[in-house]
Amino acid sequence: MPTPPPTGPLVTRGTVATEVRALGVRPGETLLLHSSLSSLGWVCGGAVAVVQGLVDALGPHGTLVVPTQSGDLSDPALWSGPPVPREWWAAIRASMPVYDPLLTPSRGVGVIPETVRTWPGAVRSAHPHTSFAALGPRAVAVTTGHAPDCRLGEHSPLARLEALGARVLLLGTDYRTCTSFHLAEYRIPSPRVRVGRPGPAGWEEPTEVSITSDRFDELGHDFERDRPVVRGRVGAADARLFPVADAVAYAQRWLALHRPREEEVADPPA
User: Fold this and answer.
1) E strand map for the chain
2) Is 60 exceeded by the pLDDT of residue 264?
3) pLDDT at 262
4) What does the alpha-carbon distance between residue 49 and residue 35 come to, in Å, rounded to a whole number?
5) Closest CA to 139 of 71, 60, 73, 70
6) What pLDDT is stored for residue 8 in this prediction?
7) Is 242 helix (H, G, I), strand (E, B) or coil?
8) Cβ neighbours for 51, distance < 8 A, ≥ 6 positions apart
């Protein structure tokens, strides 16, 4: 049986630029993108065309920012997809490559962020687990100073984006991917956790704020009900556009009320 033709819609660099402009993306602004390539339809040129279209819409004075997380540089004791035998843990910890902004690939955030990460002129922040990459004139300002003990807090690109008046574009993703909500977790009482990772001097376990996307779907539903969120479509993908600062402020109130968490430090598995 022959393979059926794609159902579309056909998405090109030009349609991405036109449709995100129609949604409200403005030339010269700073945009934090969370994306799903497969949600868009049949994209001529794939992730490269999407990035080109977004850069076209932002223009030469705009800045595109994406999460380029690398959570696989983590403690094998916590791995579940798939887990590894306990007797391997020590060897994995001893031999895991140290984070390198130029070499370490992103994981779990999709092909569009990985395309931005490797784009000529892209700049990437320094945190080994929750880095961001950026293209444009504000790229250095957004990514510089990402503290090694602050995944998504005051010393991360999220706080810089908030201060710069950046907006979030959810392109084919839902609120469970909205990293801006995590900044709110740093501004309310939250547990601390020891986070294992490879470091220049060997295995290290700094203490970080415990972050979780639990109930972000409910938070996003209420945020969209109560705050102005621009909704539309790009290709076949649902799209949402809103300010980082609005998302953080709303999440700070919502999480404290609906998802309070105890302040404590959790030890990692032995």
Assistant:
1) 10-11, 30-35, 42-43, 63-67, 123-124, 132-135, 167-171, 192-194, 197-199, 202-204, 207-209, 230-234, 237-243, 265-266
2) no
3) 75
4) 14
5) 60
6) 73
7) strand
8) 64, 112, 115, 116, 119, 135
Q: What angle is formed at CA 186 by the lines to CA 33 and CA 68, rounded to 5 degrees?
A: 30
- pTM for the structure as a whole: 0.94
3-class SS of residue 101:
coil
Mean pLDDT of the chain: 94
Inter-residue contact 223 to 231 (CB < 8 Å): no
Tokens of 234: 């790009």
| pLDDT at position 2 | 65
* pLDDT at residue 173, as a whole number: 97
Q: Which residues on neighbouring strands pair with residue 208, listed in sequence order?
A: 193
Query: By the 8 A CB rule, do 104 and 97 touch?
Result: yes
Q: How far apart are CA 203 and CA 194, in angstroms?
A: 12
Single-letter residue type at 184: A
pLDDT at 22 over 80: yes
Dist CA 230 CA 149 (whole Å): 34
Q: Which two tokens stand for residue 215?
A: 């109930």
Of 257, 251, 247, the closest CA to residue 32 belongs to 247
